[in-house]
Write a structure and sequence with these properties.
The chain is mostly beta strands. The chain has 2 helices and 13 strands, in the order ββββαβββββββββα. About 5% of the residues lie in helices and about 40% in strands. A hairpin with a 6-residue loop joins strand 1 and strand 2.
């Protein structure tokens, strides 16, 4: 596995070693010792699987208490995956990083606790899997508007196309009004 820090070094792109032949492929998506050796000694407590159709945008989500680190990957299709630094103590507070994850590049993204996370489905249908370091706690769940004018995520939506949003994401607060981490 290759571990590549992004523009926000705590967010890491992971490229697994893929073994392919005429039958298909094989790769390790998680190996505790390799992650620990790369400085990502984390414990996962929950796995999630989400399916979405093209132009679905999920996010930007986080838990203000019980913050979750997430190891995310795509097993079908392609997404644009985004992490926003919500740690006031960070020199990158309010900055974002985005990467394309797909079933063909097999890349994964480590999104540590203290970040908002979201993704946009770029293909007709996607299957999105993620491992979490803490349990889902709906009472602590928060969101920030996907199109916040201060954060300015450059979502790769075709011109004139509105994303498909949940009712909750459609009314999410702006970054300036969001609860953030110390």
């Amino acid at each position: 596995m290759e571990f590549e820090p992004t523009e926000i070094p705590d967010v890491v792109l992971i490229r697994p070693r893929v073994f392919g032949d005429p039958r298909g492929f094989f790769f390790e998506s998680w190996e505790e010792r390799k992650f620990a050796a790369a400085g990502l000694g984390v414990k996962f407590v929950q796995d999630n699987h989400s399916r979405s159709v093209r132009h679905t945008l999920r996010g930007l989500h986080y838990q203000i208490q019980q913050p979750q680190g997430k190891l995310v990957r795509v097993t079908k299709g392609e997404v644009f995956d985004v992490a926003v630094d919500l740690r006031r103590s960070s020199p990158r507070f309010g900055q974002w990083v985005g990467r394309v994850l797909s079933d063909t590049n097999h890349c994964m993204l480590w999104v540590p606790p203290g970040f908002a996370h979201g993704y946009l489905a770029l293909s007709d249908e996607i299957d999105f899997l993620y491992k979490c370091t803490d349990f889902y706690a709906p009472q602590h769940e928060r969101a920030i508007r996907w199109d916040d004018p201060q954060i300015r995520v450059r979502w790769p939506l075709p011109a004139g196309t509105a994303p498909l949003l949940s009712a909750k994401d459609a009314i999410a607060p702006l970054f300036k009004d969001a609860e953030c981490y110390p």
